[in-house]
Structures are given as C-alpha cells and as structure tokens.
Amino acid sequence: MAVADGDRVFSEHLDETTGSSRQIFRAINRTIDKSGLQRSDLDCIAFGNGPGSFTGVRVATAATQSLAYALKLPVVAVSTLAAIAVEAGRSRGVEPVAACLDARMGEVYVAVYQFAADGTAQALLADQLADPAEFSLAAFPGVSVAGPGWLAYPELLQRNADHIATQATDIWPSAAAVAVEARELFRQGKAVDAHDALPNYIRDKVTY
Q1: What is the C-alpha separation between 118 and 128, in angstroms, rounded?
Q2: 121-130 and 107-115 as β-strands: parallel, antiparallel, unpaired?
Q3: How remote is the C-alpha of 18 from its chain's centroid?
Q4: Residue 67: inside a domain, yes or no?
Q5: Taking CA atoms, which of 29, 32, 86, 199 is between 20 and 30 Å from 144?
C-alpha cells in the first residue's frame, strides 16, 4: 500500500499470506494515517491492474473499486510491468527496462519501457504474453532486465544475454512505484470512473 503526496511516498508492506479484505483495508488506513493526510485530501485511487496472478489482480481490482466508490474518487490503473520498470528506474536508475513476470503454464508476461520527459513509463513493447523459448530482446540492445520472470525461465535470460546491459531480477511491482506512476497519469487526466477500473489479465484462459 502506498500514498503519494507531492514528491513524498509513504508505503506499507502487506504479507501475501494475510491478504484478507479486512487486512487490506486496515493496511490502507495505516498508510493514509502515516502520510498525515485525511481521506478528503485524496485526489484518486491507483492500483496495479495486471498482468499477474489472476487472484491477486481480482483482489486489487475489487478493493480499488470499493474504495473509489466509498470515497467518490476516480481511479488510475497502472500496469504491473510498468510498475516494475518504474521501480527499476527509481532504485537503480536504469532504462530502458524489459520487465518480466512469470505467467505460469510455461509462459511469461513481458514488456519494454522507457521513461518520458514527464517521468512516466512509456511502452516500447506493449505488455504481452510470450513463450520464453522464443522471446527475443534483439530489437532492444543494451536494455536492463527487471522482474522475477527472468529467473523463472533461465533459458530466457541466457538466450538474451548479449542484448542485456544490467539485471535487476529481484524487483517486483511495488505499491510505491504504482503511486509514483499514477501521480503523473492523474495530472494528465488519465483517470477513470470506478466502474471502468478493470483488470488487464492479458491471458484470457487459465487452467486451474
């Protein structure tokens, strides 16, 4: 959970194993309290809308819509892959960034981002589902790779080694990165009503 107030970002980590709706909203309240803001001070609600775990994306969407309806606020959706790129840029100062998450079923979610003058992550290669045995970064020489998906399929990293400048495979999509990205997107008028804040699964079929 994170709150962005100007250049200040306040965040709190919520353990994945304790992600009940009650605990999620408690963590949200603690983060807002930590920032010193009131609910009435908030301009919008932001969330990582995917791709990623189907359950995680659904929970994030539901919590966001509930909060946005309750507070009568607009919503900014941020790609989880873009959030990885933003976090890599914030913590490692690298770009462009090829962000990757394990999509399970022998596939990955991958995208390549660079940063615009306003600091937002701009897609050079849009979020997509890819086969680790075929995906190539040949069109992006000198790219930095980030996200745990690169380690989930070692052959993916090995095949693209000649195109990779640096690695940050320990970076996950953080709430702070989502808040930082959403702050500028909101300024640009890229918010939607709560009922239009939808998940982006990318994969429309899954085996349970």
Answers
A1: 24
A2: antiparallel
A3: 20
A4: yes
A5: 199
Provide the residue range defining the domain that includes 92: 82-168
Task: Please work out, in degrees rounded to the nearest 5, the angle formed at the alpha carbon of residue 125 by the alpha carbons of 124 and 126.
Answer: 115
- Please report whether residue 89 resides in a domain: yes
What total number of domains does the chain contain?
2
- Output the tens digit of pLDDT for each of the chain's 208 residues: 899 999 899 998 876 545 567 888 899 999 999 999 999 999 999 999 999 999 999 999 999 999 999 999 999 999 999 999 999 999 999 999 999 999 999 999 999 999 999 999 999 999 999 999 999 999 999 999 999 999 999 999 999 999 999 999 999 999 999 999 999 999 999 999 999 999 999 987 544 3
CA–CA distance, 116 with 118 (Å, rounded to integer): 5
For tokens 């790129």, what's the residue? 85
- Alpha carbon 140 to its chain's center: 21
State the Cα–Cα distance between residues 112 and 89, nearest whole angstrom: 13
Same domain, 103 and 164: yes
Structure tokens that stand for 165 in this block: 């400048």
Q: Which residue has the tokens 């408690």?
A: 26
Domain at 130, CATH number? 3.30.420.40
In a domain, 203, yes or no: no
